[in-house]
Design brief:
Largest sheet: 9 strands, antiparallel
Distance between the termini: 73 Å
Helix content: 25-40%
Protein name: DUF4340 domain-containing protein
Organism: Pseudoalteromonas luteoviolacea NCIMB 1942
Number of helices: 3
Radius of gyration: 24 Å
Keywords: Membrane, Transmembrane, Transmembrane helix
Number of strands: 9
Order of helices and strands: HEEEEHEEEEEH
């Protein structure tokens, strides 16, 4: 190959830049930083909830007020005031739960699911509730975090349905 000295210098420079580019991020992919187990907010901070859905129940914001739509049988329905709906959504926004290491659960044995539509988010956030050895754990699908709940917290967060 008949490259001049200047051309070979350019080849060496560009190959070194490409090598630096690939090797710079390689250690982050091989050894991802582990998230410390501690308390975290369930929903992102300052999130603006547009709707919250449980199996058969949907709570949604209509302007500045809230309404609930239920497909549950009429004998198991409870009438909720707007203030009760606001308190359910605020409870989710203000809940701080302890992160835990992933438990051994069967993904198809979720007790319930809560799905949130947030302003400025294209896709909804999904949280699956599991019962493991009498304790409840919540799996945040998007962030792949496992959060520990007490039975009382599980009943409060999943209030419109029975858990």
């Amino acid at each position: 190959m008949g490259l001049s000295r200047k051309a070979w210098n350019n080849v060496v420079i560009f190959s070194m830049l490409i090598m630096i580019f690939f090797l710079n991020g390689l250690h982050h992919k091989l050894n991802p930083p582990e998230e410390e187990l501690g308390s975290v907010l369930v929903l992102p901070e300052q999130s603006f909830v547009l709707a919250l859905a449980y199996p058969g129940v949907k709570i949604e914001r209509i302007g500045t007020s809230w309404r609930i739509e239920s497909e549950l049988p009429s004998d198991s329905r409870k009438i909720y005031t707007e203030q009760e709906l606001v308190s359910i959504v605020r409870l989710w926004q203000n809940s701080e739960l302890k992160m835990i290491s992933p438990p051994q659960v069967n993904a198809e044995q979720a007790v319930s699911v809560a799905t949130f539509w947030l302003a400025a988010e294209e896709l909804p956030l999904s949280y699956q509730l599991y019962q493991v050895n009498g304790e409840y754990v919540l799996f945040a699908k998007r962030s792949h975090r496992w959060l520990q709940l007490t039975p009382q917290q599980a009943r409060q967060l999943f209030n419109p349905i029975e858990v």
